[in-house]
Amino acid sequence: MPTMTFPDGFDWGCGTSAYQTEGAWNEDGKGESVWDYITHSGNVSPGFNGDTACDFYHRYKEDIALMKRLGLKTVRFSIAWSRILPEGKGQVNQKGLDFYDRVIEEMLAAGISPLVNCYHFDHPLALQREGGWTNRDMAGYFADYCGLLAAHYGDRVKRWMVMNEPWVFSGGLHISRLGDWTTGLRVMHIVALAHGMAARAIRAAGKPESITTAFDTPGVYPASDSEGDRAAAERRWRMHNAFFIEGVLAGRYPEFYLGGDQTQLLGVQPGDMELVKAPLDRLGVNIYAREIIAYVPSEPHINACAVVPPAGVETFYGMEVYPEAVHQVLTRMWNDYHMPLWVTEIGCNYVDFPDANGVVNDDRRVRFLERYFAQMHRAIQDGADVRGCHVWTIMDSLEWTAGFEMRFGLVYCDPATQQRIIKKSGHWYRDLIAANSLHC
Ligand code: FCB
Fold first, then answer.
1. From the candidates 22, 165, 234, 291, which is the catalytic residue?
2. Is the dihedral of CA 317, 321, 322, 326 positive or negative?
3. Can 27 be counted among the known catalytic residues?
4. pTM of the full predicted structure?
5. Helix, strand, coil: what percent of the chain each, to 5?
């Protein structure tokens, strides 16, 4: 049984987000968010919504005690923009600020370093009514909001995350809601502008030890060894995995577009790229699976399309469980950018309930995490400077439109009774953290 020891000081943690856990959707002056609107419009698996979720708003003390029991050194959580600024701008809601003061102080008292993520998909509905991320003014609103957070919490919070998965809420998943790729690509640029302006605002207002963002970066593999598929996979990597990162680090976007003038397509205006460029201290990468990419000439813009994983492989969200992707992404990110890396999410959906003895034996999650951490260790051995990892997620929480039908937690949560039970994987992770070594 090989032993894989992680670097000294490796940051072992977990991630969560506001909408998925807090509940209290309209309490203490909170404004409505786009996700309140989406779930109230009946788009979530029946019986679930974020009105209560895991009730973290009221149970944060109990839950932070659980985080401490797991031995977590760091926790990334997000702030609900509409709790702080119910309309997205203007009037500040003091009770919203107070709630996160309590959360941060409780974490610090538990010896956990808070990593505050300013945005995890849930912007105020009032701003959506002005066009949401299709509106260039969002960049300024977002930067003002982030600056306000850093000014208020910056004396205690040293680690900041500007946003989670910019590709997912702009060009990627939400494209279907926006309707078309052309809009999606313009939104990507507006989000990149917002990101750059917000990173600067955080740096100016607080005294951060580190600023990062969680970029969603699947492994990307060609469907075959043909030149067409290999080139298509490379375009997909650039559009999906490198677009924001290179914009932020280098102030230019990678070339991926085959249909003409990429700058015009994105709606880049003079002076924008200086704002997009915003030095981060660490690159955060969320790695779940791989995409298999084929050359498909009829696909607009990049002539590339993800193909269905081979029959029989294990999948979630239609993606393949593929540990080697962790190694591919970490080594390529390190080789391309030489920036310290943080794995800001890895995790898996397995639905396991307590047995007659009240024990949750999620052996599949333990096996999944062993295989993914082994690949992380391999990337570190190969030279990648990986400083830590946030497993997604602490407890089963509202998995967006899938409700609680998808469960990613190390801790079981019953949304009806709000009972929590540490799963086998939670105990396994506690032991891994304590040993700083993986045995498998
Ligand atoms: C990520 C999201 C997170 C959760 C996991 C499963 O893309 O950041 O909120 O939904 O997937």
1. 165
2. positive
3. no
4. 0.96
5. 40, 20, 40
User: What are the beta bridge partners of residue 15?
Assistant: 76, 392
C-alpha 47 – ligand 1 centre gap (Å): 20
Residue type, 175: I
Q: Which residue owns the Cα nearest ligand 1 atom 4?
A: 399
Query: Which residues does 180 contact at the CB level (< 8 Å), separation at least 6?
Result: none
SS3 (DSSP) at 351: coil
pLDDT in tens, 9-55: 999 999 999 999 999 999 999 999 999 999 998 877 777 789 999 99
Is 405 known to be catalytic?
no
**Distance from the CA of 347 to the center of ligand 1, in angstroms?**
9
Atom of ligand 1 nearest to the CA of 347: 6
Closest CA to 253 of 302, 204, 288: 302
On whether the CB atoms of residues 370 and 40 are closer than 8 A, the answer is no
Atom of ligand 1 nearest to the CA of 400: 10
Show the tokens assigned to 146.
């982030």
- 398-419 pLDDT, tens per residue? 999 899 999 999 999 999 999 9
SS3 266: helix
**Which tokens hold the place of 68?**
């401490």
Q: Does the bond joining 393 to the residue before it have cis omega, within 30 degrees of 0?
A: yes
DSSP codes joined into one string, 61-114? HHHHHHHHHTT-SEEEEE--HHHH-TTSSSS--HHHHHHHHHHHHHHHHTT-EE
Q: Where are any strands of DSSP class E within 124-237?
A: 159-164, 210-216, 219-222
Residue 228: other Cβ atoms inside 10 A: 16
